[in-house]
Amino acid sequence: MKLSILSNYLGEEEVSLPKLAAIGYRRVEMRRKGEVELPVARLREIASDSGIEIHSMMDWHPGVADEDPGRRAEVLDRIKASVAWGAELGARVLETVPMWSGEPAQRPCAWQHAVEVYQRAGAFAAEHGVTLAIEPITGRSGQLVHTMAQGVAMAKDVGSDAVRVMGDTHHMHYEEQDPVRAVRRLRATRDAGPWLVHMHFSDQDRLPPTMGHMDLLGILRALAEIGYEGSVSLSEMAKTPDAETAARAAYHFMQGAIELAELREQRLRATP
Fold this sequence. Notes:
Largest sheet: 8 strands, parallel, barrel
Order of helices and strands: EHEHEHEHEHEHHEHEH
Helix content: 40-55%
CATH topology: TIM Barrel
Number of strands: 8
CATH architecture: Alpha-Beta Barrel
Strand content: 5-15%
Distance between the termini: 25 Å
Shape: globular
Structural class: alpha/beta
Strand order of the largest sheet: 1-2-3-4-5-6-7-8
Mean pLDDT: 94
């Protein structure tokens, strides 16, 4: 596991990346393509000078399951554009949220629409060395994929090595009966390689780690148990009490917690 944070957490990237690097961060998640004005070459230069890897990209895709094929085609084009842009930056993972709101009777049809879009997007992503990470979200935000198990089910239906799933502890707090168990179950279902390729990490209501009451240490231990090797990204962490304090405190806690969770797992595996 490697700790990550949103690229503009401390301001525009030209300011944020050097500041994050000074704290100790070595990996970031780039904000959405349409929100960044700097050209790719400049972003890469800032990241390189700061000693930071741009590993993933934020995004979400309303319309991926839309009944209108024209709308779905527009969303597919947007995903492709984000994939190509991310690949230029060196990103390996693109977040995607299959947002949909409709009548329950229409859910199977919406599910199939999303699968078909992701099959085409996954083929494009594979050509660019990028993995699409389907993110389950709360029912208040969408009605298609709520849980990690449902995310895996959709990825299985897509049937592409370039389409996997990600978790977000904020959504897991509301949708998973036991978030720790939900992570552990991924080990039992990964018959086509690791399903989990990315994690968004925060306490409930997106508070910085340990400012709420979620069992985040338990989730980190479960991630170590299943051999998770992706990012643990503070990409939507609240700036409480302020951005620099939150970024610094979260860095020191999370670095130690990740290291200890992995050391614990190594010790357990070595014990007869």
